[in-house]
Amino acid sequence: MGILEPIKAEILAIRIIPNVSPDLAASLNLRPDQKSIGMFTCTIDDVGYTAIDEATKKAQVEVVYAKSFYAGAAHASGPLSGEFIGIIAGPNPAEVKAGIQAAQLMIQEEAFFYTANEEGTIVFYAQTISRTGSYLSKVAGIKEGDALAYLIAPPLESVFGVDAALKAADVRMAVWFGPPSETNFGGGLLTGSQSACKAATEAFRDAVLAVARNPKTF
């Protein structure tokens, strides 16, 4: 396969509910103005979180539910489950559809995992988000529109890589995802200027690649 080959997520199922039932609306804690919801599943959870945040930047929608499934897509509960489900809510079906389309585009064209070894058995996510939407800014506890380095890798690689990222640029840890996550990875959300987040992302990538090249050399 080769090193630094993109691993693209796949959306498995999409549905829009134009007028959500009152009981489900209550269960999702929807506001009275949030009449419609849209949902999708995909094969890679961190790509899903990035994509659903993108939806909040391109449409009048909010993320009302977003979860990873345990053990990952290889052990999914069904062929349309993957490892992530996200639900957005908006005032009408048109806004929800626009949000889903923005998420689709992000998954298809921008947010990818990459391979760290020739076999493609070690993969990582190192995505610079130049401007957060309402969802990831809330998760990270930062202002909407701030930059993030979204960094995910297998357990040891993630800890080593996050440390390298923090030392490489003027960034701070907003959230640490200590391994194992639901999908048995780890990582973090680092925040700073856009250029600092980019430098941190590159340092994380290089650290993961170094471990993959020489896993037992210390």
Short description:
The protein has 218 residues and is an alpha+beta fold.
Layout of helices and strands:
Elements: E1 6-7, E2 11-17, H1 22-27, E3 36-42, H2 45-58, E4 62-68, E5 84-90, H3 93-109, E6 113-115, E7 123-129, H4 134-140, E8 147-153, H5 155-168, E9 172-177, E10 186-192, H6 194-213
Antiparallel strand pairs: 1-6, 2-3, 3-5, 4-5, 6-7, 7-8, 8-10, 9-10
Helix pairs in contact: 2-3, 5-6
Q: What can you see in these coordinates?
A:
The chain is an alpha+beta fold and 218 residues long. Helices cover 36% and strands 28% of the residues. The chain contains six helices and ten strands; from the N terminus they run ββαβαββαββαβαββα. The strands form two sheets. Strands 1-6-7-8-10-9 form a six-stranded antiparallel beta sheet, sandwiched between helices. A four-stranded antiparallel beta sheet has the order 2-3-5-4, with helices on one face. The longest helix has 20 residues, at 194-213. The model has no long low-confidence stretch (mean pLDDT 97). Keywords: Bacterial microcompartment. Residues 112-215 form the BMC circularly permuted domain.
